[in-house]
Amino acid sequence: MFFSRLRKDIEAAKRNDPAARNKFEIWLTYSGVHALSWHRFANRLYKMHLRLLARWASQFAKFLTGIEIHPAAKIAPGVFIDHGMGVVIGETAEVEEGVVIYQGVTLGGTGKERGKRHPTIKKNVTVSSGAKVLGGFTVGEGARIGAGAVVLKEVPPYATVVGVPGRVVRINGEKTQDLIPEKDDPVMKEVSFLRERIFELEERLEKFASWEETHAAKNGLPQQNAAPAFQQEIPAAKTADDKDHKEKQDENL
After folding, report:
1. Residue 246: its pLDDT value, please?
2. What is the Cα–Cα distance from 94 to 65, expressed in whole angstroms?
3. Taking residues 8-24, what's their average pLDDT?
4. What angle do CA 53, 95, 103 make, to 5 degrees?
5. What average pLDDT does this structure show over 29-56?
6. Contact in structure between 42 and 57 (CB atoms under 8 Å)
7. Which of 125, 109, 116 has the alpha carbon at shortest distance from 161?
8. What 3-state DSSP class applies to 100?
9. What is the per-residue pLDDT across 164-217, written as a single tens digit (0 to 9) for each?
10. Which 3 state secondary structure label does DSSP give 150?
11. Is 46:71 a contact under the CB 8 Å cutoff?
């Protein structure tokens, strides 16, 4: 039983890591394979109610590999932990066959609640570097969790999740129209409003220019003299204001 599971772990590493040259090298040097082997030993002790020894084994494996897996976690054979430094897998987490986990991943909980508080990772899921999957929900088969994503709710099968908090951006390779972030983005709404306002003002300016040309042609005036009367009165009003201002300055002197 132990060796059959170890064989599947090594095959998973060979399948998912293009740098792997042969199975002997994987067995000898891959910390992810070592961590999973130690976990199975700790898990056996845990099931025998030797909880303290189980915890000791998991902490010793953490010291050797940099990967912390709770002895009660359920991990199927054929899981690949690539590099693995900083990976943490919680007590009630379940990881099925074909899952690929990169360094810095946390399969954890969101508080001190009891019961199922860590995620279930279905078959062939990829959890990229630094991703945090927190809570007792399910990540569907074939899903992909982007690097650095923080996933706080259930993920459908064959979905791609990115961002903080994590959001589904693709399902089966197709964009999810109802989950496009720009739809409810207040900044994009403001930009759209300003763009529509600019179009409206440009349209009004074009209408005013056409009216000016028509008015000039009708009255036989040059185009520059066809401006409305209020525009012609502006310089005169400005001159009067300047004169009043100068007179007040003279009075003060």
Report:
1. 55
2. 20
3. 83
4. 85
5. 90
6. yes
7. 125
8. strand
9. 888 888 888 767 654 544 455 677 777 777 888 888 888 888 888 877 777 777
10. strand
11. yes
List the domain boundaries for the chain. 2-183, 186-252
Q: What share of the chain is helix, strand, coil (3-state, %, to 5)?
A: 50, 15, 35
Q: In whole angstroms, how large is the CA radius of gyration of the chain? A: 34
14's CB contacts (< 8 A; 6+ apart) are 20, 23, 26
Query: Residue 55 has which token pair?
Result: 């915890």
Q: pLDDT, tens digit, for every residue of 124-176?
A: 998 988 899 998 888 988 889 988 889 888 888 888 888 888 888 888 876 76
To which H or E segment does residue 167 belong? strand 167-171
Query: CA-CA distance, 119 to 133, in Å (whole number)?
Result: 7
Select 2-183's CATH number: 1.20.1250.10, 2.160.10.10, 2.60.130.10, 1.20.1180.10: 2.160.10.10
- Average pLDDT on 94-117 reads 86
Tell me if the pTM is above 0.90: no
Q: Hey, what are 210's tokens?
A: 């056409």
Report the C-alpha gap between 190 and 204 in whole angstroms: 21
Residue reference for tokens 């897998």: 89
As beta bridge partners, residue 186 has none
Percent of the chain at pLDDT exceeding 70: 79
210-211-213-216 Cα dihedral, nearest 10 degrees = 180
